[in-house]
């Protein structure tokens, strides 16, 4: 039997001829020179245009009739310096709420997603509950939910209900985002190609083992970028808890602003949020790019 | 020969109103290689999927070593441990290394300790010329390498029956040979294989039995020699003359 006649040559890389003698041709040298020059020119043009744009915006703002008032009300340096320690202290609470909420949201989201994709007959009531939960809580504005949980839950006067406003705020955020994240994860689970399930089942893996070892890892990998987007949004929405009164960044800014009749503390709080969300966004972008490249690589096989 | 390892009787399968398999009878004895040939849509893949219980049959029975696979009360997970399948599109798990792909089922399904499972896996990889690829992820392998890894994965659980579903169809022509070499090697080692294939030369040289399917029916089956050199049915002759690209206006195959 001779099935080797069409065998591809292996290890061709080791036999490539030495390339020491290579010199770029004159045409190539000229091409490279032109490309360098063009790149330099483009850099200059973009720098000048950006500068002109910034100058125009600044001139527009400065020449507006109300600029002096805005300058003193929003951009007061002393005010910012005075408010900053309190803002930072408040922001620390935002960070803590964010981290605690994120962990709980992932757990709740994963639970709802898994319940909704499994087909075990005994889980039917749970499946209905999960569907209802997602439908209802995705439909309620987060701020409204913060009010409802913050004022409604203590009013029930159940034993063991937390009364700390920030805890109630976290519960509201978890309920709201859990529904979103559950849907993202469910989409991820459905995005894994059925042939992967077939392959796993054919190897004798049970339904549960297939989910645990084959489907779930791929699903999570597929939805990391949208999950990160949700978490960036969550990080900002921790400010919604301010309406319940805990001293987080926005509430601190509000107190200081009301006290001094100056809005600069709000700007300070905004800067703090931006300082966290911008790096997170860049990180999410990078992951998304990498995921896209991987998908293309797989599709291009 | 005694009771065949795989016995299919009166198998019927339809997707909606479309009947894909009708009244299929097929025996595969131990240590035999049986090739299913036929055009696209003739039902070869569906037959394999039914045997592996990936599709539910609409009538008929399938027995593997005396156990009825078509019994809905059957513990399919347990029965599947005895069958290995390799797909046209490899279906390796992209998030696992080649080694983890191969050891997943032995470790999780058969409870083989990690060290022992990896040892077996490395032996298989070495046999298939993939010893240096154990730690790579599937997307770093060529199509032929992926398919050989998929065969290794199917073999790792030491199944009684191997099902190959057009395992060379997705490969570049120059990579087909390396995968077929592996299959020929498995035959020499006495494995039982049921495979759907478009590789006529290969079927002819390796198969003990060849079944020609058309429109969900086994039109002709016999030894490779008989089916290829003296096909009894007109349909078989038509098909062979088409795929073997031989002229012959009357449909006879010149060999």
Describe the fold and architecture.
The complex is a heterodimer of chains A (301) and B (255). Chain A is an all-alpha fold. Chain A contains 10 helices and no strands. Chain A has helices at 26-63, 67-74, 77-117, 124-139, 142-155, 165-191, 194-202, 207-237, 249-260, 264-299. In chain A, helix 3 packs across helix 6, helix 3 runs parallel beside helix 10 and helix 6 (165-191) crosses helix 8. The longest helix of chain A has 41 residues, at 77-117. The radius of gyration of chain A is 28 Å and the shape is flat. Chain A starts with 25 loop residues before the first helix and ends with a helix. Chain B is an alpha/beta fold. Chain B is 35% helix and 24% strand. Chain B has 9 helices and 10 strands. The longest helix of chain B has 16 residues, at 173-188. Chain B starts with 5 loop residues before the first strand and ends in a 12-residue tail after the last helix. In chain B, 47% of the residues are buried.
**What overall geometry of chain A do the principal axes of the alpha carbons give?**
flat
- The span between the termini of chain B is 31 Å
Helical content of chain B (DSSP H or I, runs of 4+): 25-40%
Strand order of the largest sheet of chain B: 6-7-8-3-9-10
CATH homology superfamily name of the largest domain in chain A: MetI-like
Structural class, from helix and strand content of chain A?
Answer: mainly alpha
- Determine the oligomeric state from the structure: heterodimer
Question: How many helices of chain B in DSSP terms?
Answer: 9
Give the radius of gyration of chain B.
Answer: 18 Å
Q: Number of helix segments of chain A?
A: 10
- Please trace the helix and strand order of chain A, writing H or E for each element: HHHHHHHHHH
**Largest sheet report of chain A:** none
| Rg of chain A, alpha carbons | 28 Å
Domain ABC transporter (chain B): 6-240
Membrane topology (chain B): Peripheral membrane protein
InterPro entries (chain B): AAA+_ATPase, ABC_ATPase_HisP-typ, ABC_transporter-like_ATP-bd, ABC_transporter-like_CS, MetN_ABC_transporter-like, P-loop_NTPase
Keywords (chain B): Amino-acid transport, ATP-binding, Cell membrane, Membrane, Nucleotide-binding, Transport
